[in-house]
Amino acid sequence: xxxxxxxxxxxAGPARAASAPEPALPANLRRNAPLVPTDSAASRxxxxxxxxxxxxxxxxxxxxxxxxxxxxQWQSSVAQEVTxxxxxxxxxxxxxxxxxxxxxxxxxxxxxxxxxxxKAESERLLEPWLGSGLDLSDLPVPRLIALTLASDRxxxxxxxxxxxTAALPGVASLDDHALWLQRLSTMANTFAGxxxxxxxxxxxxxxxxxxxxxxxxxxxxxxxxxxxHFVGADDDYIAKAFQSxxxxxxxxxxxxxxxxxxxxxxxxGLLARMWRSGPAGEEIEALFGTFQIGWQGYxxxxxxxxxxxxxxxxxxxxxxxxxxx
Length: 325
What we know:
By secondary structure, this protein is α+β, with helices and mostly antiparallel strands. The chain contains eleven helices and four strands; from the N terminus they run ααβαβααβαβααααα.
């Protein structure tokens, strides 16, 4: 009987030992936070920096898209017209010369219409440079004929220029606005290049901010990294942990910055439509465009937000691997 009690005690002992809970770790050894926290003050500051830089890059891209779009509209408008200039000459009837130049232009292939500027209208074109209130009746102000090109038929401007020179030598000349078109193209390309350069600089600044933040996180978690190495974690595993955390930070900052840029562009377009109703708005629209971006501009802003998050993840992974070496 005593043997049975002893055996039952010996069997119950291991059972109680197996069911007993394991002792908890001391508070100073427990780590409840992730390896790279995304809700700390430093993480929130990095997300704010990424959001601000993304916002600035998106605004630059939107402004470049507006400039290129406006330049394209100007080019399209200028390319649809050419101008015949008839200069006054001693001993000649300028009105007869203007009518002859008009008839030659209308007979040329590819010319859809011709409009003769009156003497008063030609003088009014000089007011931005000479001012108003001047008596220009004694000055040899050239007369202009605006020719509209046909959209369904190519115009032979070289033949028209030759015909004007032969019929009215030294009096009539044809201006196809090629110089202005070249300048508009150069201006558009310059604005686009400046916008791309600023976007690249902002992304570079984002990468530098991520580099410093990643090195700070690595330095603050050196003991944890050593423990991970001790238990068999390789550098790729640690780099992936940092990369996923910083990608979330970059995605948060990029989304905030891109969203703010989209809201700003939409608000600018709404205000431009409101100002367009007045004469000042018409002048601003004629000079600077409508301050509206199309779906390409909105797509570029969203793309910049995505690129900012990808740059954050890639730079953090590269920095971690360099640090672990």
